[in-house]
TrEMBL record:
InterPro entries: GH32_Enzymes, Glyco_hydro_32_N, Glyco_hydro_beta-prop_sf. This is Glycosyl hydrolase family 32. Keywords: Glycosidase, Hydrolase. It comes from the Bacteria. It holds the Pfam family Glyco_hydro_32N. Belongs to the glycosyl hydrolase 32 family. It comes from Rhodococcus oxybenzonivorans.
């Protein structure tokens, strides 16, 4: 698997399968910006399709920032796609706005009948609840973490795992698994976090899977934000748990060798093998390309329902 655009950087990505094609959604920004750190506030959500998960055909972008004023009028960031009982595809994604200079993150939804044309839902915007989660005004982190929604169905209910930070604990290690629940994908309830602070500054692009009959939590954290888990160069982490909703032993999370890739994702293919991938996060010319990860879980595993 490889996706490289000559005129754009591509980074965080997520995937779904319509039964005929795999659909890869990813963040992209023009290389004309020159400084790759500027890409975050220029991000749109790109889209490519593939019949086999290997060779990809670029299509029109799925989402772009809204006209101001809106929660996503600056940039659109990482999310996930699921199909509801009514057959409608739902993309949950992160938005940042000009009003807060991109520092406050919120979660929105867009829907589609064909995965190609998307309509944003103006009535669904989820924000962090200050009873449990750190807010921008708390001042212990550069921004308010409330992003990367990963949605899946479990035990008859929809669940959303969210990159978030607790409102208590050592500021260097407040990352937690944010949580929201829904019966219908349209109405959501913000819940307390599914984990407690465990020494990570951020836990990004969260996913839950069952591997070898053991529930795991997959997440990313850059080495610079793992000061309480020093000595690791890779940004991919796995914590074992008691169920797909935890609790997980995040304190004892394992650092996984995914070479120079970041925001690594996993999903089962149609032949029950695992596909793992991420984006090249090195300082060289390959930065900003999506490629397969060499991490390969065993094939006798199961995933929750999100990947359809």
């Amino acid at each position: 698997m490889r996706l490289a655009l000559p005129d754009h950087w591509v980074w965080d990505s997520w995937m779904t399968d319509d039964g005929t094609d795999y659909h890869l959604f990813f963040l992209r920004a023009s290389r004309a910006l020159q400084d790759r750190e500027r890409r975050h506030y220029r991000a749109t959500i790109g889209h490519a399709t593939s019949p086999d998960g290997e060779a990809w055909t670029l299509t029109a972008d799925a989402l772009a920032p809204s006209d101001a004023p809106a929660f996503d009028d600056l940039a659109t960031w990482t999310g996930s796609v699921v199909r509801g009982a009514d057959g409608l595809w739902n993309m949950f994604y992160t938005g940042v706005s000009r009003a807060e200079n991109g520092l406050k993150q919120r979660i929105g939804r867009a829907t589609s009948t064909d995965l190609l044309s998307w309509t944003k839902d103006p009535d669904l915007v989820l924000e962090a609840d200050g009873r449990w989660y750190e807010l921008l005004g708390d001042g212990t982190w550069p921004d308010e973490a409330w992003r990367d929604p990963y949605v899946f169905e479990h035990a008859g209910q929809w669940h959303m795992l969210i990159t978030a930070r607790a409102c208590v604990g050592d500021p260097e290690g407040r990352a937690v698994v944010g949580h929201a629940t829904s019966a219908d994908l349209s109405h959501w309830r913000i819940e307390p976090p599914l984990s407690t602070p465990a020494g990570f500054g951020e836990m990004e692009v969260l996913q839950a899977h069952t591997v070898n009959a053991k529930p795991i939590l997959l997440f990313s954290c850059a080495p610079k934000n793992t000061s309480l888990h020093a000595g690791h160069d890779a940004g991919t982490w796995i914590a074992e748990g008691q169920s797909l909703l935890g609790p997980w032993t995040v304190t004892d999370a394992t650092n996984v060798d995914t070479a120079d890739l970041y925001a690594v994702q996993m999903r089962r293919t149609r032949n029950s093998n695992w596909m793992t991938w991420g984006f090249d996060n090195t300082d060289g010319p390959q930065f900003g390309t999506i490629t397969s990860s060499r991490y390969s879980p065993h094939t006798d595993t199961e995933s929750p329902t999100p990947a359809t």
